[in-house]
Amino acid sequence: MPFDVENHPHRRRNALTGEWVLVSPHRAKRPWKGKVEALPPASRPAYDPACYLCPRNTRAAGVANPDYANTYVFENDFRALLDGLPAPSSASAELFRIGAVAGTCRVLCFSPRHDLTLPNMAPADIRRVVDVWAEQVAELGHRYRWVQVFENKGDVMGCSNPHPHGQIWAGTSLPNEPAKEDHHQAEYFRRHRSPLLLDYAAEEISRAERLVDQNRHWVVLVPFWAVWPYELLLLPRQPVAHLDGLDEAQRDSLAAIMKRFLRVYDGLFDCSFPYSMGWHGAPAQTEDTRHWQLHAHYYPPLLRSATVRKFMVGYEMLAEAQRDISAEQAAATLRTVRDRLWPEPSPAAPPVP
């Protein structure tokens, strides 16, 4: 019997982290009698007087929000990272090591509208969010080793407030995930003298089987090593190491393609699609960033419908990640939604350098 990648179990290696994922595409046919999620409200008001993030309202810590008109950034009232605290003793035992860390956490409200998620915002307003991301990375990168820009969308992803917002955490240490990516990108660059993710983007564009969308400056794809059912990787098509390294055209193009593929997400199961996303760029205060390529990860939990999600339990927690549909199947499904929502062709894209 010849191997069939669409039906036979196999493992795939994540070139960014060195980790493996078990792909079991035949399991998508199994009946589902597990947990079914409750659907969130179909609509929300443009302003909610009880929301801690809406303009003019008072937050839980007693601070009043200004009457902001577009984006709004403030220090998180319940920060996970703090500055100015004593460091732990450096004499900790080998099996009980404690490391010092300092930092800050900020909240970014995308707009004053309580009911507008990113895919429903105008491209010009999404562009403001992109600019704030870049400004925050540049500012905090002067003080901290790592600046993590991210968004948790939807209560199924643990979002504590439905007002559309993201977060920026900055700390003095390099966390686990970017540390793995830094190592594997550096190793690839040492062997090939070219950035791993630029080469990867070129290969994915050439093969086309996992592409979801693209324009002149960006490509959106289901990564070969995807863990989550409809996971996406957003990549610039030219070399760039940091968000603040994007030029004006790249930022406009980013806002345009974000609106496109986030609308595709919403159209997949006809719901406000939940996910956790985050940007990875070169660590701050790094002299040689030639091996790094800026990118964003999108990790959505939904598997079969708006009410059935993927759980990371059992084998995933104790052995390695596992998925039930192939990356190629997921990409084909998303392209079908894209073509229904955006029947016009994407802007022509030049070859990747």
Structure description:
The chain is α+β, with helices and mostly antiparallel strands and 353 residues long. It has a single domain (46-85, 98-341), classed as HIT family, subunit A (2-Layer Sandwich), CATH 3.30.428.10. Helices cover 25% and strands 17% of the residues. It is built from 6 helices and 12 strands. It has helices at 123-141, 176-192, 196-207, 248-268, 315-318, 327-341, and strands spanning 10-13, 20-23, 72-75, 103-109, 146-153, 165-171, 211-214, 218-221, 232-236, 275-280, 295-299, 321-323. The strands form 2 sheets. A 9-stranded antiparallel sheet has the order 3-4-6-5-10-11-9-8-7, sandwiched between helices. Strand 1 and strand 2 (20-23) form a beta hairpin. Helix 1 packs across helix 4 (248-268) and helix 4 crosses helix 6. The longest helix is centred in the C-terminal third of the chain and has 21 residues, at 248-268. The protein is globular, with a radius of gyration of 21 Å. The two termini are 40 Å apart. Residues 348-353 have low confidence and may be disordered.
What proportion of the residues form beta strands (DSSP E)?
Answer: 15-25%
Strand tally is 12
Low-confidence stretches: 348-353
Rg measurement, Å: 21 Å
Q: For the largest sheet, list the strands in their spatial order.
A: 3-4-6-5-10-11-9-8-7
Structural class: alpha+beta
Mean pLDDT: 92
DSSP summary: helix tally: 6
Helical content stands at 10-25%
CATH class: Alpha Beta
CATH architecture grouping: 2-Layer Sandwich
Tally the structural domains. Answer: 1
The profile of the biggest β sheet is:
9 strands, antiparallel
Shape: globular
Order of H and E elements:
EEEEHEEHHEEEHEEHEH
